[in-house]
Amino acid sequence: MTALQFNDPLAVTRFDAVTGLFRWMQSIPPAERRQFVARLLECSDEVQQAVIALMEVVKAPSTTPAERQRALMTIADALYLNPDEMDKEYGQDAVRSEEYGAENSPPLAREAAKMNTQEQAFADRLRELMTAKRISQRELAERVGCSQPAVSQMLNRTCRPQRKTILKLADALSIAPRDLWPDIEVADVLDAAAAAHADGYEMTPAEAEALAATATKPRPRLRGKSLPPRPE
Amino acid sequence: MTAHPHQLYAVPFTEADQARLGLAGFSCGDEPWARAAAEWILGPDVLDSVTRRGTIVWLFELADRTVVGFASLGKTRWKWPLPNGTYSNLAYIPMVGLAAAFRGQPSDPDWRYADQIMGHLIDQAAQLAAGWPDDQKWLVLVVAPQNLRAIQFYQRCGFELIPNAGRKDGQHVMKVWLGE
């Protein structure tokens, strides 16, 4: 093995690491050991790098037990070692999660129904516009900067468009975003309310200056008066 | 002594109220900002604001428990004053909504529901900001520039539109001074 030649100054370090790895593998059952090695070998260089970085975390003395546990779980996930007990699959299925939420909460059910209607309206409208403007899926994909299958998925409703995609599509079709997705303005208002409340929100200098301007300190013209609690 | 028939009561909002509001078909109207207000109180945003930002939320009810509207009050942690300011608390109204059926109601100007709700917010905000340094004693809110009805209402309550200071997302900020 050329990787382990004695004139390589890193050989000793590598032997140390390999010995450590073997010793650790001795401690797990043979079946799991084989699975671990097979999975480690078949994954991409990027995943291998990530696993190595996580192993550094696991063995660092400063790592807390909870962090170690999380790192090990992430490694197991990355190497597909512990499929979800329930359905032998990884991660969360967004569609199923949404359906589950809808079954268990009336507000979520309404949201899901509304989203569904909007999605259908969006797909219909997009198809209509493409026909009217004689734009092919390929051409639209080029204008938006996505793949043709992605456009096809949106038209067939197998993929819900992201907000930025709606904006790009509207731009590509020379229409207003709300003509494609009517509730985009509602989303804008909700986003703005949340953004203004977020930590460390930075005002524009003009905004800050205007707020700081002591010349105008408008006082309430309405008498502040807290409302009573409900009588028993 | 019986209470005035238009007297609103402030009821602390809890997650359980969402089902009640949903069943009653709570709606603030059809405009985008009105739909946003209803979505806020009926959906995940209100819970997010309460748990992550410590926002206080009230429902405003009539004596028979009809919900007339809701309001919320929180604190910002904006970087301010510029340029070297750290995180500052300003009183902030994340969302406020009046049920569409009660817009402009009642006709008796002394008992306008919108005024009762804003009076409540101003008093609560003043209490919140009582111990704060003078330059932070502001109550601020964000409003869609197309929502002229709301802008006029806030102006009538004493809020001032911060001029030429539109936010990146196109919303406008309004302020009122809570100090002495």
Features:
heterodimer; A: 232 residues; 434 Repressor (Amino-terminal Domain); 2 domains; 12 helices; extended; B: 180 residues; alpha+beta; Aminopeptidase; two-stranded antiparallel ribbon; globular
Write structural notes for this entry.
The complex is a heterodimer of chains A (232) and B (180). Chain A has 232 residues and is mainly α. Chain A is built from twelve helices and no strands. Chain A folds into two domains: 9-78; 97-215, 434 Repressor (Amino-terminal Domain). In chain A, 64% of the residues lie in helices and 0% in strands. In chain A, helix 3 (45-59) runs antiparallel to helix 4 (65-78). Chain B has helices at 17-23, 32-42, 44-53, 113-128, 148-156, and strands at 9-12, 56-61, 67-75, 78-79, 87-88, 91-93, 96-98, 138-143, 160-161, 172-177. The N and C termini of chain B lie far apart (35 Å). Helices cover 29% and strands 24% of the residues of chain B. With 180 residues, chain B is of the alpha+beta class. Chain B has five helices and ten strands. In chain B, helix 2 packs across helix 3 (44-53). Chains A and B meet through helix 6, helix 11 and helix 12 of A and strand 1, helix 1, helix 2, helix 3 and strand 2 of B.
